[in-house]
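Q: Please design a sequence for this.
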Protein backbone atom coordinates (compact mmCIF):
# COMPACT_ATOMS: atom_id res chain seq x y z
CA UNK A 1 0.00 0.00 0.00
CA UNK A 2 1.49 3.32 -1.07
CA UNK A 3 0.82 6.55 0.82
CA UNK A 4 1.72 9.90 -0.77
CA UNK A 5 2.63 12.56 1.78
CA UNK A 6 2.71 16.25 1.01
CA UNK A 7 4.29 18.67 3.44
CA UNK A 8 3.54 22.34 4.01
CA UNK A 9 5.18 25.31 5.72
CA UNK A 10 8.11 24.94 8.09
CA UNK A 11 7.68 21.15 8.12
CA UNK A 12 9.36 21.15 4.70
CA UNK A 13 12.59 22.16 6.43
CA UNK A 14 12.48 18.86 8.34
CA UNK A 15 11.06 16.52 5.70
CA UNK A 16 11.53 18.04 2.26
CA UNK A 17 8.79 18.54 -0.33
CA UNK A 18 7.09 15.17 -0.17
CA UNK A 19 7.42 11.51 0.67
CA UNK A 20 6.02 8.18 -0.38
CA UNK A 21 5.68 5.48 2.28
CA UNK A 22 4.55 1.90 1.99
CA UNK A 23 2.72 -0.39 4.40
CA UNK A 24 1.44 2.25 6.81
CA UNK A 25 -2.05 1.24 7.92
CA UNK A 26 -3.27 4.26 9.88
CA UNK A 27 -2.39 7.76 11.04
CA UNK A 28 -0.98 6.58 14.39
CA UNK A 29 1.42 4.26 12.55
CA UNK A 30 2.28 7.05 10.14
CA UNK A 31 3.17 9.38 13.00
CA UNK A 32 5.38 6.71 14.61
CA UNK A 33 7.23 6.02 11.34
CA UNK A 34 7.77 9.71 10.63
CA UNK A 35 8.99 10.41 14.18
CA UNK A 36 11.51 7.55 13.89
CA UNK A 37 12.83 8.77 10.51
CA UNK A 38 12.69 12.48 11.38
CA UNK A 39 13.17 12.97 15.15
CA UNK A 40 12.72 16.75 14.86
CA UNK A 41 9.14 16.17 13.77
CA UNK A 42 8.24 14.78 17.21
CA UNK A 43 8.63 18.29 18.63
CA UNK A 44 6.59 19.98 15.90
CA UNK A 45 2.93 20.90 15.98
CA UNK A 46 0.92 19.89 12.94
CA UNK A 47 -2.37 18.43 11.80
CA UNK A 48 -2.94 15.54 9.46
CA UNK A 49 -5.33 15.57 6.52
CA UNK A 50 -6.25 12.40 4.65
CA UNK A 51 -7.53 12.97 1.12
CA UNK A 52 -8.17 16.66 1.90
CA UNK A 53 -10.03 16.06 5.20
CA UNK A 54 -8.42 16.95 8.51
CA UNK A 55 -8.54 14.04 10.95
CA UNK A 56 -8.36 14.33 14.72
CA UNK A 57 -8.19 10.68 15.73
CA UNK A 58 -6.54 7.55 14.43
CA UNK A 59 -7.76 7.00 10.86
CA UNK A 60 -7.23 4.11 8.46
CA UNK A 61 -5.23 5.06 5.38
CA UNK A 62 -6.74 3.69 2.17
CA UNK A 63 -4.45 2.48 -0.57
CA UNK A 64 -2.99 5.27 -2.72
CA UNK A 65 -4.36 8.01 -0.48
CA UNK A 66 -2.75 11.42 -0.05
CA UNK A 67 -1.82 12.60 3.42
CA UNK A 68 -0.98 16.24 4.11
CA UNK A 69 1.03 17.44 7.10
CA UNK A 70 -0.23 20.90 7.98
CA UNK A 71 1.62 23.20 10.39
CA UNK A 72 -0.30 25.86 12.31
CA UNK A 73 -1.46 28.67 10.04
CA UNK A 74 -1.92 32.28 10.99
CA UNK A 75 -4.28 34.43 9.03
CA UNK A 76 -4.95 38.02 8.40
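A: Design:
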Amino acid sequence: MEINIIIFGQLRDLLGKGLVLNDVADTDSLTRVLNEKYPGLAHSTYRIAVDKEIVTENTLLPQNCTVALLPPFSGG
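Q: Thanks. Anything notable?
A: Strands lie at 2-7, 18-22, 47-50, 53-55, 66-70. The chain is about 20% helix and 30% strand.
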